């Protein structure tokens, strides 16, 4: 059983799509996108965001999904198969996902703490200043009724509860500096959930509540991953659909709040279109698209590797892009409605309540919920949505690393549960740093720099590898072997292998990736990090560079390691940039799926396995052979009832190179031309003698010129015939075998020259003289290799060959 047979597979297409949606649509759609929209013109930001999503994000997303589906392997090995020098791309993606997973489950743990507080009936704690953890700076207007009652019901005086005292006017509160007052929800998050210390230098010890919540989050993640993709698919039926139901409910509630129109005016009705002319707006939109769609993290590539090869990943990439855009735009509308409600309630400008990241999710929203009827209900729905979005994305992030280990080290696959537990445990231990009193500062560093300029650099290198080193023309044929050929002009331009996709892959996407990489790198160099007014110390910059460049270091290390191993085995530098033997053969896939150009059926991507018959013509009995994945490896043991190789195959086979420098391919144009000349026949195919009318005389010639092959080489070749591949103990053995084959080819060439002269004297005619003689007189190494194969077969099977040739002559089959 092959590695592909052992690989899991999704239960249904729907489960795969939902798992990908759950992985891509995450917390950034809720707390990062609204802040970006606020800073870049409000609703005007939707224009560059949606354009970048569908013009650039969707094609790159489709590239990663199709790579995983075609190769049926994860990021750690798919790039090695394309070019060993670039294998570090996959491991860099795995490391990036691992770093993100470290802090992502910390967020999931925070949502669990909020949900626990809601279930236990303690939602009042983030709306009150009377808790034990509140400071004297806590200011709340939710206690104005009790303050108003205490002052005799004088409703003209706006009263606030500040520093544990009633009777302070709202004007005084508003005059205080921002650093002198905090909201109850902010203190609940900082002092209760985080137990934050004043600086990074004060460690503060472990926060037991956060540690327990983090442990629960990792246990849930590990249990799901142990069950495999089938369980992830089943869970995705819930985790990918419920957030959309919840956001629709919250949307309806938010747009009906008093003051919602204030936020909607800024977000939709009164956007600042002048920001569209700012290049930074486009750069931020493109960057957010890559992060939001999880491009370059390796997760979607890993999830797609469990697909059937004829699965329509082009359609799925479009669905995922639409789902991600919908959540961002729809969720942004709900967020701005709530911000407008808050601004109206507090009688301040909207910019005074806008916060991004954790501040929006864990400070602004909880405070807004407490001002609504049934606050516990809305708070539960909101934090349940955050939990589901977080845990579903976490499944994909952790799966990347686990899949990388399984694919790189196949013996580990039977110990899947152990690997998942080890990865989860060590990532949990790394996350304990974020559960300390100073953990929020490290969290900010992880959040800002785990997927920084290195992510964009890896995306650019991935595009260069596939489009320019492996070649776009080759990869387009790979895609067509899975999804078929375009049916009309529209799909030739906008289809899965159309011109638009190729243009984006080859020109637009690489330029965008490297440009954004430069901008992000500049921001990393010039950034001064802070949190809630606290400026990070200078030594934190070292952590920034470690997080930002770790995946690049891994990329260089893996490439150097492969180079060292290749040179140690005697291979040159060139082999590091050549496609490997284990890269799937598109012709085998096309034949299995029936996706050749001559087998189109109704509906794009749906094909029949029946090839349209061609008009029969007089021809030589050489018909299309089975396609092979290696130059010499799949020789057939007996020529009896086997089909000799077609001219198209003979012209493209590399005779001396066991490590394939490019996949053996026969173009569909060549196949169609060949089919027109050589339709299927009922003739007996018997190797070289079937080429001649005087089969007996030709057989005598061949028998008089045998090639003597040593037993060791013969054993290796015969073993390859049954197993379909070569296996060597070391590189020296492979090189020795290659040298022997080269010697036999040279000897075979000399024998064939002698045979050719003798055959010309005794052959009466050829059935298809022009075609055969062009092939016979070819000086290409490909034909000499095929000739050697036939000579070896003749030497081993000359008795059967002669009998079959005589039978063919008596039956008159070749006299047609």
UniProtKB/TrEMBL annotation:
Keywords: Coiled coil, Disulfide bond, Membrane, Metal-binding, Sodium, Symport, Transmembrane, Transmembrane helix, Transport. It is a multi-pass membrane protein. Disulfide bonds join 129-138. Na(+) binds at residues 22, 25, 29, 292, 389, 393. One of its GO terms (cellular component) is neuron projection. This is Transporter. The chain crosses the membrane at residues 12-31, 43-63, 89-116, 206-226, 235-255, 285-306, 318-343, 376-398, 419-443, 449-470, 499-522, 542-564. It comes from the Eukaryota. Its main location: membrane. It is found in: Membrane. One of its GO terms (molecular function) is metal ion binding. Residues 745-772 form a coiled coil. Pfam families: SNF.
